[in-house]
From TrEMBL:
The keyword GTP-binding does not apply. Residues 65-93 are annotated as: Disordered. GO terms for molecular function: RNA binding. Keywords: RNA-binding. This is Uncharacterized protein. The keyword Cell membrane does not apply. InterPro entries: S4_RNA-bd_sf. Pfam families: S4_2 (PF13275). It comes from Planktothrix agardhii (strain NIVA-CYA 126/8).
Amino acid sequence: MSETIKLDQFLKFMGEVSTGGQAKILIKYGDVEVNGEVETRRGRKLVTGDQVLVNGKTLTVNLYSREHRNSPPSPPCRGARGGGNTGGKDFTI
């Protein structure tokens, strides 16, 4: 079975919201898109490759399986916060 993360959890993890309540409001009022379509379900399960548009930023979901959690860390993410890249961002959870 492939790894998933719920949309509201992803927004919190990525720092786009500080609370689940904030995520719920953004999602409920249609301020979040997944793969180019407005998503109003906060429990929407995201998989690797999904594109999430929020706060004017496109975030690419990149999950890894549980068996790889004890593997050596991945190289740094492209477009990580604090960098000069203002385009799409890839992050590994």
